[in-house]
Automatic annotation (TrEMBL):
Keyword Disulfide bond set for record: yes
Protein name, entry field: Glutaredoxin
Single GO MF annotation: glutathione disulfide oxidoreductase activity
Pfam family name, one: Glutaredoxin
GO terms classed as biological process: cellular response to oxidative stress
Keyword entries, A-Z: Disulfide bond, Redox-active center
Gene Ontology annotations for the cellular component aspect, listed alphabetically: cytoplasm
Keyword hit for Repressor: no
Residue ranges that the Swiss-Prot or TrEMBL entry lists as coiled coil: none
Gene3D superfamilies linked to this entry: Glutaredoxin
Protein source organism: Lentinula raphanica
Sequence ranges assigned to domain Glutaredoxin in this UniProt record: 35-94
C-alpha cells in the first residue's frame, strides 16, 4: 500500500519536460533572434559567414546552431530544406524572414553573403 502511495505521489510531482519538435526548435530560434545561422563546424563557408557577422556586425546578436554537433542536426537540416528549398549550410535567417542571400550551394552561399555585405543589402536587412 505504501509503495502505491509513493508511486502516485512521485507521478504527481515528477514532470517530464516536453521536448520541442524540430519545427518548434527551428521556428523559435528564428523568431527569437535577429540573426540565426544554421551551420557546421567543418564548413569553411560557414566559418566565413559567421566571421562576417561577428566582425562587421558585432552588436547584432547572432544565434548559431552547429548542426554537426547536434544529435538532431540531420533532422534540422531536413526541415530547413523543406522550409526553404536550400539543402546546404550556411542557412541564414535575418530578422525572422529567410533572406535568399545564400544560394543552394555552399560555394555560392558565402560568396552571396559577402556580396550582400559589400552592396549594403545586408546592412539594410538588419535595419528592417
Amino acid at each position: 500500500m505504501f509503495s502505491r502511495t509513493l508511486l502516485a505521489t512521485h507521478r504527481l510531482f515528477t514532470t517530464t519536460a516536453k521536448q520541442p519538435t524540430i519545427k518548434e526548435l527551428v521556428e523559435s530560434a528564428i523568431s527569437e533572434n535577429p540573426v540565426t545561422v544554421f551551420s557546421k563546424t567543418t564548413c569553411p563557408f560557414c566559418t566565413a559567414t559567421k566571421s562576417l557577422f561577428s566582425n562587421k556586425f558585432p552588436n547584432v546578436p547572432v544565434k548559431v546552431l552547429e548542426l554537426d554537433l547536434r544529435e538532431d542536426g540531420p533532422a534540422i537540416q531536413a526541415y530547413l530544406a523543406q522550409k526553404t528549398g536550400q539543402q546546404t549550410v550556411p542557412n541564414v535567417f535575418v530578422i525572422h524572414v529567410h533572406r535568399h542571400i545564400f544560394h543552394s550551394t555552399v560555394s555560392l552561399g558565402n560568396d552571396s553573403s559577402q556580396a550582400a555585405y559589400q552592396s549594403g543589402r545586408l546592412l539594410n536587412m538588419l535595419k528592417e
